[in-house]
Amino acid sequence: MAKYRAAVPLLAVAAGFAVLQLCYAVVHMDLGWDETVYLSQLDPRTPAAYFSAPRSRGISLLAAPLIAVTSSVLTLRIALALLSAAALYAAFKVWEPLLTRGRTALAALLFATLWITVLSGPEVMPNLWLALAAVAATGWFLRARDGAPQRRKALIWLTATLAAATLLRAPDGVWLAFPLLAAGALARPWRRPAVAGAVLGGLALGGLQWAIEAYIRFGGILQRLSDSSDTEGGMGQKPGAGVGAAFRSLDGPQLCRPCHIAAPPLTHTLWWLLLPALALAACALAVRRPQPAVTLLPVAGALSLAVPYLLLLDYAAPRFLLPVYALLALPVADLAVRTVRALPAPAVRAPATALLCVVLAGHLAVQLGELRYNTADARDTAVRYRRAAQELGRLGVRAPCLVTGPRAQPIGYEAGCASAQTMGNNRSTTTAGLLRAAAAEPLAVLFDPADGYLPPYARHWHRHPLPGTNWSVYLR
Length: 476
Hints:
This protein is mainly α. The protein contains 20 helices and five strands. Helices cover 65% and strands 4% of the residues. Helix 9 (127-143) runs parallel beside helix 11 (170-186) and helix 10 (151-168) runs parallel beside helix 12. The relative contact order is 0.11.
């Protein structure tokens, strides 16, 4: 019975995370653009959309058993909400022997109540799952120290969780491994071949499929990395531009590219601005304690994972930094509890605890407001994709069919059609190839006035407005 009572705090956080998703982020949410790309890869009902160089297939594999048995988006959302809540529990559970149960539950609470965390839970996107894999892998690494009980079990799980992270986002798996390998080389408790082997083995297992695909589709690993950089707009060409973009998009939109919006108010951004200071304070205090790695390693992992998104990209999406937030939640929660307990008398600790609770409640209120706004925004965008696809069906564009033009990937998936582009990041065919396909199946050319480009071959085709949008479709 005592064992079950000890699991209650973290279990309550995971259950609350599931409830938040079911209440706010599941109902009425149709599929987003990137989700249709990932789902189409293994969906038996639709052709696979073009899979660009920066993507990894881990999230497609995770969703494959679900999409194989149902086409219901609501069922998919509910299943992923429950699964992500269970994964949150499992990932942070690894840290209980390292931080204590209360601090681990507080860390999970801090992470699980961010609006982007809740919104990502039921989505077919890799970033939240990468964040949880990073938390688990870092914890298992710390538990694999020399002389620790169940060290072999920790090494096995270190390999498995790092492989999962690399399968979900291959480059991010490498960034996550850097501080682990450095700690293994510098810190005596982890300076063992078995630890390095577990880290490198996880990278190899998780990155094998990505590497094979690099040679089959892109001409090698270096060429795939180069293509990825081109798709991302040239990584490293504007060093540090991602910091400003991440700050401005902190409360949305879900993709800020190009990111020229105004920054949110200070009340919504103060927690983000304080994160570096809190992490630095946690590290400064940790070096005086017997096991500083429990604080230093998650901070190092967070810094490493932040590098590509803050220093190498010139645009932002709030989900990109989910692994950073998940890792920093651990030392921040530890710092908060230690600070309160360090106060000299109970008469002081009680008001300090109450003040922290008030601050946390205000933070949660802000996050809940942003969750409502961004959920509605995501829903409105996805509904337009679905309505456009329904109109294509009414116009006679049914499988087998082909869609091209702006937003061809999500609309094509909803319509059961293949999608193709002759230009841009998702270029997968030529104009001649499109016209050859049009001889055998319906071809729909989407047009957005904001884009302003209509291919010459479609300019004399019949134009049909798509209800509920300012888009049109041209049919032969």
